[in-house]
Each structure stands twice: as structure tokens, then as C-alpha cells.
Amino acid sequence: MNANAQFSTLILAALPELRAFALSLTRDGPRADDLVQETILRAWSHADQFETGSNLKAWLFTILRNLFYSEQRRRQREVDDPEGKRAAGLMICPEQQSHLEFEDFWHALGNLAPLHREALILVGAQGLSYEEAAAVCGVAIGTIKSRVNRARTHLMTLLQIEAGHEFGPDDILKAVIGLDRPDAVND
């Protein structure tokens, strides 16, 4: 019998005792089975570290015990978040993408006709109502609405945006382009 076959036979003989030990630690059958399986995998991957003639069961029990306590430490740091709500609140969008999107936006804004750009900035960036923007520009409300709509449409074409979710995390830029409002496309 070669060394691998002998090692395999010794491990198989230790399985019932390993499972009993794992059950005593976890008090959970499926978790104990996972722990035993991980122990066997670790033992096989580190078989070259096992010294022939030493106590294989003690070595396996040590691996199992270390795995159990490592798992316990990891679980203490984990937060139960099955739906991912907590993780979603911790998510931070990368700054470099936002910066690049702003540069693209700034360039596209410069390509708008001055009257369209003015109307869009007053309504989108400054937050003025259509009535207030119309008074500032000295035109009818319908004219401001038309200019804002044309500016938004042209910006979306220049930026190759088809839907609001494609535009980055910056709320101000979304407001300027009108993607923060449900009626943005129909202005």
C-alpha cells in the first residue's frame, strides 16, 4: 500500500470521531459536516506537513478545532443582512467615475445653444420654477419649458444616455438633466 492510500485509509477511519467532535463544537449537523469536510480538504492539501508516525487523529482534531474557532471569530464580525439593505447603505460609489462623468457633462453642456444652456441651468441647477426662469429670461413659460426640454434631450444625446440609471451618482447633475423627476422625459 502506497503512502497516499495509507493516508486516505487513516483519514477515513477518523471520520466518525471527527464528526462527533465537530457536532460537540457546533451543535448543528450540517455545519458539523461542513467543518469535517473542510478539515479533510485542509488535511489533504497539507499532507506533506504530516509527519509519518505521529498521531493523525490529533493532527486532524487540531485542524478541525482551528477551523471552528476561525469561523467563530469571523462570524462575530459579520452582521446578519440577508436582504443586503445594510450593505447597500454602506456602498460608496467610486469618485473617479463621478469625476469623469462630470467632465463629460461639462463638455456636453458647453455644446448646447446658449439659450438652452441658460434655461437648463436656471431650472435644473439653480432649482428655479419654470415661472421664475421665464421671468428671469423675459420669455413665456412655454418657451422656457421648450428650451429646457430641448436642452435635456440634446444633453442626453450628447452623453449617450437612454435612462436615468446610466447617469452617475451626482444628484445635481441628475437634476440638471432632469433625471431626478418622474416627468423628466415629458417636459
Automatic annotation (TrEMBL):
Gene3D superfamilies: 1.10.1740.10, Winged helix-like DNA-binding domain superfamily/Winged helix DNA-binding domain. It holds the Pfam family Sigma70_r2. Keywords: DNA-binding, Sigma factor, Transcription, Transcription regulation. The keyword Transcription applies. The keyword Ribosomal protein does not apply. Residues 11-77 form the RNA polymerase sigma-70 region domain. InterPro entries: RNA_pol_sigma-70-like, RNA_pol_sigma-70_dom, RNA_pol_sigma70_ECF_CS, RNA_pol_sigma70_r2, RNA_pol_sigma70_r4_t2, RNA_pol_sigma_r2, RNA_pol_sigma_r3/r4-like, WH-like_DNA-bd_sf. One of its GO terms (biological process) is DNA-templated transcription initiation. Transmembrane segments: none annotated. One of its GO terms (molecular function) is sigma factor activity. Residues 104-155 form the RNA polymerase sigma factor 70 region 4 type domain. PANTHER family: RNA POLYMERASE ECF-TYPE SIGMA FACTO, RNA POLYMERASE SIGMA FACTOR RFAY-RELATED. Belongs to the sigma-70 factor family. ECF subfamily. This is RNA polymerase sigma factor.
